[in-house]
Each structure stands twice: as structure tokens, then as C-alpha cells.
Design goal:
Elements: E1 32-36, E2 41-43, H1 46-54, E3 60-61, H2 69-72, E4 86-88, H3 90-98, E5 103-106, H4 115-125, H5 129-141, E6 144-148, E7 156-160, E8 170-175, H6 185-196, E9 201-208, E10 225-231, H7 236-255
Parallel strand pairs: 1-5, 8-9
Antiparallel strand pairs: 1-2, 2-4, 3-4, 6-7, 7-8, 9-10
Helix pairs in contact: 3-4, 3-5
Length: 256
């Protein structure tokens, strides 16, 4: 990205944040375990919840606004009413399970789900799941922490380092060129206003697939092309003020 993202510091908790990516071993087993509900993957083990959230900010607490209770408390100190699961979105579950290979996904019959079966189920909920995964992997490759953008009418929110440190810099819109309804001028203006109320910009990702594309392995996602654009509204008052400040600094430096 050839731009400087807007970073707004965030006051938050004091829990430890571990290096990325998550470790491949945890308490004697080689991967974290999750149950696929058809919409999300639920992590139930308290130690797994803590490890996944503090090691990349994956998922959302099922009984909290975002941070699971176990992140702040020792698992042994949590009573029955406070117990919750960590809900992983389809894209981040796919990323953890079939790219990083640190997550095993099971169905309700305790049978491990293959990536093909997971993708078929996810496509029933989101017909553009392949493009969404391509966008997610692309953003992760850029070093962003990626969270759901539903609250701001987008696909994703992306953070520098994570929501523990900064507010989101961008609301991300995943666009498939064959479906441009949400890019009508009125909707773009609405997205900009929503983003500006919380000091964010709109990042548009155009995802295109080769002709006759067929995903035969998870690595085939690299065949999709991602083009990014920043949508910003020109603020004349802010621009003039910035220019005046620059001129004033220049004149002062010449006097000195």
C-alpha cells in the first residue's frame, strides 16, 4: 500500500498479546479444535480461546462485545454463567484451518471437515465466499489484523497490530466486478459518511477470477487478482488549513 494509514491509539486492557502466528502445539495436541455450526466455528476450550484471541485477535466472544471473558480471567476463576465460546468467522476459520493449519474443524458428529466440504457449506451462506477468502488472505499478507466490518456496513475492519492497540484504520468493501450494485454513488457516499464518523477510510478491494477458475486446492486462491483503491471525500476546509500551516512553518524557518 502506497499510503500512510490513519492510526488512532486506543485505550484498552492490559492482557498479554503473543507473537503472530499462533503456535502449532497447545497443551499436548497439535491443533486447536472447533465445531462448525454452518455459520461460524465455535471454540469451546478455555485455553484454546485464550490462545487464539491473544495470538492474533481471532474471533469474538459469544457473550461479550468482543474480548472473551477468559482473556481477562484465569479459566479456573470463571463460573458457569460466564463461560462462553469463541466465534470464528468463516473466512478466518478457513485461514486458520487450511492455510496456517493450526485449527481442526469438526461437525456435530465429531467428524473432521475437509476444506472442500467446509467451502461448500460456506458458499451456501455466502455465494462470494471464494472472493471473500481471497480478500482476507490478501489483507493478512499485508500484516493487517482483520475483523468483521458488519457494524460499519462493510465486509471487514482492518487494524494495525490489533484492536488492543488502535482503532480500525479502514472499512473494507469486497467488490466483485460482475456485481456492482453496492458501488452506486449514493451508497459510496453513505459508506464514506459512516466511516468518517469514526475516523476511518474506505478501502475497496476488487476481486477478479481467471476464466474457468476452479478451486482444486486452498493454494489456488493465489490465482485471483486483488486490486485496491482508497475512497476518500475531499475536505476543502481541512486542506486549506493544512496548507496554511505548511506555509507558516516554511516562513518561520526562513526567518530563523
Amino acid at each position: 500500500m502506497f499510503f500512510v494509514p490513519h492510526l488512532k491509539n486506543k485505550r484498552g486492557g492490559t492482557y498479554d498479546v503473543l507473537p503472530f502466528p499462533p503456535p502449532c502445539t497447545n497443551e499436548g495436541h497439535d491443533a486447536y479444535n472447533g465445531i462448525f455450526t454452518g455459520i461460524s466455528v465455535e471454540i469451546c476450550n478455555a485455553n484454546d480461546i485464550r490462545a487464539l484471541y491473544t495470538n492474533g485477535f481471532y474471533g469474538k466472544g459469544s457473550q461479550s462485545r468482543s474480548v472473551p471473558n477468559v482473556v481477562y480471567k484465569n479459566p479456573s476463576e470463571i463460573d458457569l454463567e460466564e463461560r462462553e465460546t469463541l466465534s470464528l468467522g468463516s473466512e478466518e476459520s478457513f485461514f486458520l484451518a487450511y492455510y496456517l493449519r493450526v485449527l481442526k474443524i469438526f461437525d456435530f458428529d465429531a467428524k473432521e471437515i475437509t476444506w472442500e466440504d467446509f467451502m461448500k457449506s460456506a458458499l451456501k451462506v455466502n455465494g462470494n465466499f471464494v472472493e471473500s477468502v481471497a480478500a482476507y488472505v490478501y489483507l493478512k499478507s499485508k500484516g493487517w489484523v482483520v475483523k468483521s466490518g458488519l457494524k460499519f456496513a462493510g465486509n471487514y475492519l482492518i487494524y494495525s497490530k490489533g484492536p488492543r492497540f488502535f482503532h480500525a484504520s479502514f472499512v473494507v468493501i469486497v467488490n466483485i466486478p460482475s456485481n456492482t450494485q453496492h458501488l452506486e454513488p449514493k451508497k459510496i457516499k453513505g459508506l464514506q459518511r459512516i466511516a468518517e464518523t469514526s475516523d476511518k477510510d474506505v478501502l475497496l478491494l476488487d476481486i477478479t477470477k481467471p476464466k474457468n477458475f476452479k478451486m482444486q486446492t486452498p493454494q489456488d486462491i493465489a490465482m485471483l487478482n486483488v486490486t485496491e483503491s482508497i475512497i476518500k471525500r475531499f475536505n476543502y476546509t481541512s486542506y486549506v488549513q493544512t496548507q496554511r500551516n505548511s506555509i507558516s512553518k516554511m516562513l518561520k524557518s526562513k526567518k530563523n
